[in-house]
Amino acid sequence: MALVESAQPELGSDAPDFSLPATDGETYSLESFSDKKALLVMFICNHCPYVIAVQDRLVKLAHDYQDRGLGVLAICSNDPVRYPADNFEAMKRVAREKGYPFPYAQDETQEVARAYGAECTPDFFLYDADRALAYRGRLDDNWKDPGKVERRELRAAIDALLQGDRPQQAQIPSMGCSIKWKY
What are the DSSP calls for the chain, one per residue? Predict the structure, then answer.
C-alpha cells in the first residue's frame, strides 16, 4: 500500500461532467444533483484501509447533510480486473452492507478520475452551487481513530458553503492509497 496525498487544490475550477452507473441501478451525472446547494464528489474504493477507516464517518456525514442541500456521490475508479475487491459486484455488496446513503458509482474507464485529477482514496472534491471547486482537502485530522478527531475540515467546508460563505483557503491534502490505474 503506497501512501499518496492529493494534489494542491485548484479552487474555482468547474466540476467535470460525467455519466456513471451506480450500485443502485441508476446512472448519475452533474445534472442529477442540480437541485443541491453543494456537491461532494468522493473517490473511494472497497479495499483501501484509509477508506475502510473512514467509511462510517462518510455515512454519518451524508446522513447529517442530506436534508440541508448537500449532494453526495462516491466514485470507485480502481481497475476492477487487477483489483477484483473493487469490481461492480463488490461495490454493490459494500454499499448495501455499509448502508451508503449516497450513490456509489463505477468509473470503469477511469476517465472521470482523470478529469477530476483524483489521486488517492479517499479524495474529496467539494463544489459550490455553481459547481466551482471550493474545497479539496482531507476529511478530518485523524483518519485512523475517530475518537481522536479534533478538526473536521470537510464538515467545516460544507457548513461554510451551506451558509453562503467560502471555506478557508488553507486546505490540508487528503491522503490514502493511490488510485489503481489501468496499464
Answer: --EEEPPPP-TTPBPPP--EEBTTS-EE-GGGGTT-SEEEEEE--SS-HHHHHHHHHHHHHHHHHTTTTEEEEEEE-S-TTT-GGGSHHHHHHHHHHHT-SS-EEE-TT-HHHHHHT--EESEEEEE-TT-BEEE-S-S-S-SS-GGG----HHHHHHHHHHTT----S--PPPEEEEP----
